[in-house]
Amino acid sequence: MISSEMAVKAYRKTGSLFINAVIWLFSISCIFPVLWLVVSSLKTSSEFNRNIIGIPSSLQFSNYAKAFVTADLGMLSVNSAFNAVISMILVVILTFSIAYLLARFQFKGNRIIYYMFLFGMLIPMHALLVPVFIQFKEMGLFNKRITLIFPYVVFNMPFSLFMFEGYIRGIPKDLDESAFLEGSTIFRTMYTIIFPITRPVMVAVALLAFISNWNEYPFALVLINSQHLKTIPMGLVSFNGEYSTDYPLKMAGIVIATIPIIVLYLGFNGKIIRGMTEGSIKG
Amino acid sequence: MSNHSALYPKKTVFISLLAPGVVLYAVIALLPILGALFLSFFKWSGGVHKTFIGFENYKNLFTDIRFWNALKNNLIITVVSLIGQVGIALIVATLFLSRSVKLKNFHRSVIFFPVVLAAIIIGFIWTMVYSRDYGLLNFILRSIGLESWIKPWLDDPDIIMYSISAPIVWQYIGYYTVIISSGMTAIPKEIFESSDLDGATGWRKLVYIIYPMTRNTIIVSVMICIAGSMKIFTHILVMTGGGPGSSSMVMALYAYRNSFVKYKLGFGSAASLGIMLISLIFILGTRKIMGSKNNDQF
User: Fold this and answer.
1) Using CA atoms, how far apart are residues A127 and A118, in angstroms rounded to an integer?
2) Is the ipTM of this complex over 0.85?
3) Alpha-carbon distance A240 to B104, whole Å?
4) Best exposed site among A95, A106, A232, B255 by fewest CB in 10 Å?
5) Residues A91, A153: contact at Cβ < 8 Å?
6) Is the CB of A19 less than 8 angstroms away from the CB of B3?
7) CA A257 to CA A231: how far, in whole Å?
8) Does residue A83 register a pLDDT over 90?
């Protein structure tokens, strides 16, 4: 009897070791190309060409300085940050407002608005590149400082709206109702009572919007052509075309462009994942 | 004045709260579709002159072998992604249910990390991973004695779609892992309490209880995955530009090429609408086949 119990225990232990090993292997494969990128970006070009995998003998931060200056990453980051931050704020405010009204009130058009945004979630937004380009040309919105804010807000709306809406549905209605009965206006109820409660989702929505806007390339490619309005991804593409053989230099440029994302992710990854878990995309 | 009226806000208040977002969305995301519908009946290269040509653009689109080839490539990406992203995510999420997995939050964060990287950066990284002389992949193959497996990963039309799908799959597994995990954690705790998932009964429970209960989550994942595969653009633009030849051309890139390289904007509009239509058919068709019970969400 005892020996069979031990056998079960041993079996369990092997099983658990095996599962953990699989998960570790998987995690490593997810991060390894990025680690390779960071390590290689600190080598000289000839050192990298001799051995693509080894640890750098001395850290070449000069790659970073050169990439930063040559690719004009300073200006590009300012442009990207401008687009990403303003769009992020607008996405949060606009989608929260719509989501709140959709979740709390049955009104004519409720379902129409809902399906309008659902449609936006389902169509491949890159199919809109050409139509949006033509419309922006006609509206005089092509290649302006504020040009990219429009698509960046709009294309983040469907996802954000559903995250908010699902979460708000989970907040007890009594809360709004008692606030109203105490004389609170709809503005106050929405923005000072419910909005703070949605924090987990709000943080995730804001961060995901910022990240996707910082990363966005196709619409920038199509809607912007002035040097001084270019964003980080646009700059990286031309930089990488220019220095196609100098891998460490290219990699340094890529790392610089990704630093804001990495910093945000290190700080907030738990919040992003929690927000996604609590939002309603799970269906 | 009366408290009651506050419960049902005035129409003007209501509209002023809804309108900014809804109007902005309609003008930027929906209006261009109508514009494209109009332009799709014209021959237009961006100048003053538009020539009405009826359904000519659509005829040319649907008889262009390159368009169907692009669609085929989108479908290859879709199938590989469904198996690779949703399938692997399902396995990883299932493993996460096990009590014996240590450092779950750490692993989840690491696996999700590629999701937040830019498509363009994934494209750059993997172009380097696939590089013949300085690539990570060939280096690994060489060091484990599989030299014979080395291939021109991004230059061989026969394997290009798989070379290109790998980074796309790799990037988004974490996304689906989080979605599916969240669906799984919504399962009542009591179901887990009676016995351990690691035991023999665990697998049975998985098949008969957990998967059926996460069905809606899986359906949503499948739909998001199809929608995502249909819009693939940047990864491919960066890695191959649609080449070699047009062997890795996808629909979004096809519309882009025709509009901005060949300046066929009327045709590009027709192609854009074609992409939307085809994608919607696939997504809604899949939903129908899989039979989502939850009408409120998708």
Assistant:
1) 16
2) yes
3) 37
4) A106
5) yes
6) no
7) 10
8) yes
The residue to which tokens 């290269």 are assigned: B45
Q: What CATH number is associated with residue A245?
A: 1.10.3720.10
Neighbouring residues of B77: CB distance < 8 A, sequence distance ≥ 6: B161, B164, B165, B168, B229, B232, B250
Residue among B22, B125, B199 whose CB faces A113 most closely: B22
Contacts of B296 by beta carbon, 8 Å cutoff, 6+ apart = none
Q: Write the residue in B6, B108, B129 that is nearest to A33 by C-beta.
A: B129
Asked if the model's pLDDT at residue B292 lies above 90, the reply is: no
Indicate whether A148 and A13 sit together in one domain: no
On whether the CB atoms of residues B25 and A117 are closer than 8 A, the answer is yes
**What residue numbers bound the domain in which A14 lies?**
2-40
Task: Yes or no: say if A233 and A77 are a contact pair by the CB < 8 Å rule.
Answer: no
Helices A157-169, A247-278: crossing angle, 10 deg rounding: 30
Same domain, A92 and A12: no
Most A CBs within 10 A among B2, B10, B11, B22, hence the mutation to make, goes to: B22
A7 in contact with B at a CB cutoff of 8 Å? no
What pLDDT score was predicted for residue B202? 65
Do A158 and A241 lie in a common domain?
yes
- Residue-range domains of chain B with CATH: 55-293 (1.10.3720.10)
Chain B contact probe: residue of A14, A23, A39 with most B CBs at under 10 A: A23
Q: Which chain B residue is nearest to residue A182, measuring alpha carbons?
A: B3
Question: Could you tell me the pTM of the whole model?
Answer: 0.91
**Strand-pair partners of B43:** B51
**How many structural domains does chain A have?**
2
Cβ B209 vs Cβ B191: under 8 Å: yes
In a domain, A180, yes or no: yes
